Amino acid sequence: MRLVGWLGWLVGAAVVACGSAPAPPAAPPETDDDSVSAADEEPFDASTPFIPRPEETRAPSTASYEEAISVPEPIDVHDDRVQLTDGQLTGPMRGVLGRCRVPSNAKVTIKTAVQNGRAIGVTVVVAFEHPRSVKRISNATRRAEAKTSARIVKCAQRAVRAVTWPPSRRRDSFTTEF
Known about the structure:
The protein is of the alpha+beta class. It has a domain at 52-71 and 82-178. Helix content is 32%, strand content 15%. The protein has 5 helices and 3 strands. It has a 3-stranded antiparallel beta sheet. It starts with a helix and ends with a strand. 12% of the residues are buried.
């Protein structure tokens, strides 16, 4: 009988030991001040208002290239404003005619004036090249080319005005030929 009592006690102790929850982790020590370290959270300064970049808030310009450059830009000998490089100006123009469906015999020239990261003036000129053997172009061909030219101009202007360049307060201008 002693063996059965001892086994019962052993089984009961095992059940109690397995069924008990592990000890809770030690709580971090409390500090007297409620400060939070800078690594944990950046402080929020409500006195500084959020100001979006100008190129994101302005509506695209509808001015032509000629209108944009007709306004004189003040230039100073000590002007230290950033001027964009040729690569920065022409780089965003690479795929601008991608959706405009330009015929292979059309030459497109885009004159662009840029300031504050946006186009402030755009002029698009479309010229159709014809083989030298063609002496006279029919009126129907001229009408079709005029209609195609208007479509390309509208598409290209919309595409160029949607492009963003690196921000620069200085007015830059360039011509791209496709």
